[in-house]
Design a protein that fits this description.
Blueprint (H helix, E strand, L loop, with lengths): L4 H9 L4 E6 L4 H12 L3 E7 L1 H10 L8 E4 L3 H13 L5 E4 L4 H8 L13 E7 L7 E4 L9 H17 L6 E5 L10 H14 L7 E6 L1 H5 L1 H6 L12 E3 L3 H13 L4 E7 L5 E2 L7 H15 L2
Parallel strand pairs: 1-2, 1-4, 2-3, 4-11, 6-9, 7-8, 7-9
Antiparallel strand pairs: 5-6, 5-10
Helix pairs in contact: 1-11, 2-11, 4-5
Length: 300
């Protein structure tokens, strides 16, 4: 069980150096994170973008360009496309978003010619460590799927369980979140939770433990679950929190980050290769952690 991001970095170090393609790399915090990841020997970077801007920013942070490759492409769309092609062709193992809109890079990811799409639902997961919880935990999907239906939620769980296994969580515990722990036909999230638990019991969702619905308090607190009379192997000890929709996920993500001071990482799942897709608001530490996640996924 990983209890900190320091342990996550050490686990990633043990997997060997991976090649990462950074789309539109002329972003200072992205370069700082890539620099750290390179110094840790997590990645060998290929920086795609405006070479003059990349070198200028690199000089400010003492980036060792002898330990990187630069592909000069000043057009953002073409830079995103080339970085994606490098990954889809197998020349690089991980794709990372730089100073480019998410929609621009995702258009390349979904491109039939050079993209990274598979049969799976593409989803986002955030990994958090907060002082009030005893281990790192995963929140999904706070950024990609707006209102996932039942089958999409099943695939989101499967994507996230795969990442959990990369974090050496052998049998991840999945808590299905809603506003209430009681099933009500008026609350779709609770109905979905009940159906997902039935899928798990029927063997349709494997290699994890699924339970719910839970309100957030009785998902993460054994005491809160006990007060409500909830008996569950998941309550108070989940590894994965499945949110009902992007609104709930986004609010939880930002609450943990800005109110609770959580350390975080984020990555896109369900593609041919890991995609490090972080927010402009994420600091270099969060970006470094996200690169480490990409290394772990690329190593499976």
């Amino acid at each position: 069980m990983i209890t900190s991001f320091e342990e996550l970095i050490e686990l990633a170090k043990s997997k060997g150096t991976k090649k990462i393609a950074v789309a539109v790399a002329e972003d200072k915090e992205v370069l700082e994170a890539v620099k750290l990841a390179s110094e840790f020997k997590l990645v060998y970077p290929t920086l795609v973008g405006d070479v003059d801007k990349i070198k200028k920013l690199g000089e400010e942070i003492d980036f060792n360009f002898n330990q990187a490759k630069i592909v000069d492409e000043k057009d953002q769309v073409l830079a995103a496309r080339e970085a994606t092609r490098l990954v889809s062709s197998g020349e690089c193992d991980i794709l990372m978003k730089g100073l480019v809109p998410t929609a621009t890079i995702m258009k390349q990811v979904l491109d039939k010619e050079i993209g990274l799409r598979t049969e799976k639902v593409i989803s986002h997961v955030a990994v958090f460590h907060v002082k009030t919880y005893h281990k790192v935990f995963l929140v999904t999907d706070p950024a990609m799927n707006i209102t996932p239906d039942l089958q999409q939620k099943k695939q989101i769980i499967e994507n996230t369980v795969e990442l959990a296994h990369s974090l050496d969580i052998e049998t991840p515990k999945v808590a299905i979140l809603a506003a209430s722990e009681k099933v009500s036909p008026k609350m779709e999230a609770t109905v979905h939770a009940e159906e997902l638990v039935n899928m798990y019991k029927n063997g349709e969702i494997k290699d994890c433990v699924v339970d719910g619905p839970f309100a957030l308090d009785n998902a993460i607190s054994k005491e809160a679950a006990k007060v409500k009379g909830i008996v569950s192997d998941v309550a108070g000890n989940p590894d994965i929190l499945l949110v009902p929709n992007i609104d709930a996920g986004n609010v939880l993500y930002k609450s943990l980050t800005f109110l609770a001071g959580a350390k975080s990482a984020g990555i896109i799942l369900g593609t041919k290769a890991p995609i490090v897709l972080t927010s402009r608001a994420d600091n270099k530490e969060a970006k470094l952690h996200s690169i480490a996640l990409g290394v772990l996924l690329a190593s499976k």
